[in-house]
Amino acid sequence: MLVIYLSATTAWGAWLGRGARSGEDYFLGGRELPWTAVLLSVVATETSTLTFLSIPGVAYGGTLGFLQIALGYVVGRTVVAAWLLPAYRAGRLQTAYELLEGRFGIESRRFASAIFMVTRLLSDSVRLFATAIPLTLITGWSLLASVFAIGALTFIYTYLGGIRAVVLVDSVQMTLYMIGGVVAIVVLDGLVAGGWPEILRAAGAAGKLELIDTSLDFGRPYTLWAGLLGGAFLSMGSHGVDQLIVQRLLTCRDLAASRRALVGSGLAVLGQFALFLMVGLGLWAYYEGRAFPRSDEIFATFIIETLPVGVRGVLIAGVFAAAMSTLSSSINALASATAYDFWRPARPAATERDVLRVGRFSTVIWTALLVAAAVGFIPLSRESATVEVALGIASIVYGGLLGAFALGRFSTTATQHGVNAALAIGIASVTVIWVVARQAIAWPWFVLIGTAITVVTGLLATRVAR
Q1: 421 half-sphere exposure, CB direction, 13 A CA radius
Q2: 3-class secondary structure, 251
Q3: Tens digits of residue pLDDT in 160-206
Q4: Banded pLDDT at 73 (limits 50, 70, 90)
Q5: CA distances in angstroms from 405 to 78, 130, 343, 368, 389, listed in the order given
Q6: pLDDT tens-digit profile of 203-258?
Q7: Burial of 154 (0-12, 13-18, 19+ CB in 10 A)
Q8: 415 domain-assigned
Q9: How far apart are the C-alpha atoms of 154 and 215, rounded to whole Å?
Q10: Fewest Cβ atoms closer than 10 Å to its Cβ: which of 227, 325, 349, 444?
């Protein structure tokens, strides 16, 4: 079943890209993709393997408190829909960072785009590694061989199909791995004596059903305040200034469709997180709290060792669907930023067919880089859930980027050099916090702190320059 699924997905994705004749077709789908497919693609892109494997591990070792972050996600997307989407849709922008060029100049656009590239390379290589874990358990291959296998299959349909293939295949893949989560819930009901009533009773007695934590401890990642404020700013960064998501929103037909896709994705993610957190509680009851080397291995081990062959095939296909959706989106977004933010501005006479050619070449390069980087996070993955590692990496830079966009939208005096310096200082400050004070300040606060530092520094730099 797994071989059939992977072959069919790759072939379908390649077929979908048969009509691409320009860079805009390849990277923006002609700006005519249905908002429902874009919504599903956004959810598949941002959660993927981290949701399928890591979120159950979060609940297994903790509580349902992670949902507080998801509540903030809905708030953040609503702000982006009202604040940034109209600016993106006002012109025919190709990337998120083109907005900065219109306000500050090409240097700011390229600086922000370069930051996106580095961050996406690091965080998505973590996701790629996370998916190699179950493949290694199934096949006995090395982690390196597993990473190469996933990367190669995803590359084929991403290279040939472009964003149209990425979005439409994503929508199917998300449906598949959600089905996988539901299947796990049903199976666990039969495996644990007393079924879900007993699972919930035991989880409640152990304090694992705690949802709201009103603690003011900034070192705790899952509190109401970290969720609503930190989660909102994180979502504003990831869905407002990250080309990975903005690119999808630009493929919709108009502003209203983009808004429906964006806000709807927040509600869908909330439900998705709830589903996989419940899977984690069921696994905790089934394994009776047994310790595992890595939290990301818990669900994977359950799939491989416990489920019957047919059901196992559905779950494993879900794992691969989750992995391929994010990896394909990342590759295409990185290639679009390379072509439009760096290559095209230096060649005003270039045609859209030239952009298509460069975009496909960039797809090859970024796939190779993501695959090569994936094995570098093995030590970190042993320390905490992979979802927390990836979100922590992204949170380091989102504050700086969000602050730069805020200066561009609301400050009439900010200058290019001032904004570039503020962006660098904002990211550097949060990096220092992550290195020396991560126990005192949890990762959900990083974006808010980085945004504040960037905005204040940018305004001060402007005043000093006068």
Answers
A1: 14
A2: coil
A3: 889 998 899 888 888 888 888 899 999 999 999 999 999 999 999 99
A4: very high
A5: 17, 32, 22, 31, 25
A6: 999 999 999 999 989 999 889 999 999 999 999 999 999 999 999 999 999 999 99
A7: buried
A8: no
A9: 43
A10: 349
* Three-state SS sequence of 360-420: HHHHHHHHHHHHHHHHHHHHHHCCCCHHHHHHHHHHHHHHHHHHHHHHHHHCCCCCHHHHH
Whole-angstrom CA distances from 242 to 44, 110, 217, 398 are 15, 13, 29, 8
In contact, 75 and 234? CB cutoff 8 Å: no
Please, are residues 166 and 158 in contact by the beta-carbon 8 Å criterion? Answer: yes
Q: State both tokens at 40.
A: 């599903």
Tell me, yes or no, whether 178 lies in a domain.
yes
Q: Which residue is listed with tokens 């020396």? A: 436
Position 416 in a domain: no
Phi-psi region at 97: left, alpha or beta (left = phi > 0; alpha = psi -120 to 50):
alpha
Q: Which domain holds residue 166?
A: 2-378
In a domain, 276, yes or no: yes
How many structural domains comprise the chain? 1
Looking at residue 118, which CATH number applies to its domain? 1.20.1730.10
The pLDDT-based confidence of 377 (bands split at 50, 70, 90) is low
Q: Find out whether 321 and 177 touch, Cβ atoms under 8 Å.
A: yes
Query: pTM score, two decimals?
Result: 0.89
